[in-house]
Design brief:
Layout: H1 2-8, H2 20-26, E1 38-43, E2 47-53, H3 73-89, E3 98-110, E4 119-129, E5 133-142, E6 145-158
Antiparallel strand pairs: 1-2, 2-4, 3-6, 4-5, 5-6
Length: 171
């Protein structure tokens, strides 16, 4: 009986970690715009936790701001979206033929500055999932302190602009 019980425990608690090479096999983003370094936890269609190691070598620090480097809030939201993109694209076997596009950002709040030397922990939870898109709640932390949060909406589209199945209204 105990063996039967252990087989009924489904892979709903399945967790996945990804290094930067695995992330690059899922996302099309590359330096200097790849903003996640590692996935610590991925629960399909539910949640993802990723990290971004923030270093002084980031190109945006040259101008934001000289002598007072602060990571731009929009890039923290982009890191949330990229983490969400990994979560969404893992559902598609033909992910090389698809892109995840932003369709909305709501309730963005920036609580504390993110500076060189910080490790950003990005937690994204699916709120609505509809197969080719959804709405997610993202939160970013440094040392367990909330630094930013936002709701992001996105849609998975075809990379080919001539395919009408993209649904993005562009031709």
């Amino acid at each position: 009986m105990d063996t039967a019980h252990s087989t009924t425990e489904a892979p709903t608690t399945e967790k996945t970690t990804l290094d930067v090479n695995a992330i690059c096999r899922i996302l099309p983003h590359r330096f200097p715009f790849l903003l996640i370094d590692r996935v610590l936890d991925l629960q399909r269609q539910k949640r993802i936790v990723a990290i971004k190691n923030v270093t002084i070598n980031e190109p945006f620090f040259a101008g934001h701001f000289p002598n007072l480097p602060i990571m731009p809030g929009v890039l923290i939201v982009e890191a949330m979206a990229q983490a969400g993109g990994v979560l969404l694209l893992t559902e598609f076997e033909d992910r090389d033929e698809r892109l995840v596009l932003f369709t909305g950002i709501e309730r963005a709040r920036f609580r504390r500055p993110v500076v060189p030397g910080d490790q950003l922990r990005i937690e994204v939870e699916v709120k609505v999932w509809r197969g080719t898109g959804g709405r997610m709640e993202g939160k970013a932390y440094v040392d367990d302190k909330l630094v930013a949060e936002a709701h992001v909406s996105c849609r998975v589209v075809s990379r080919s602009r001539d395919k009408k199945s993209s649904g993005n209204g562009e031709e």
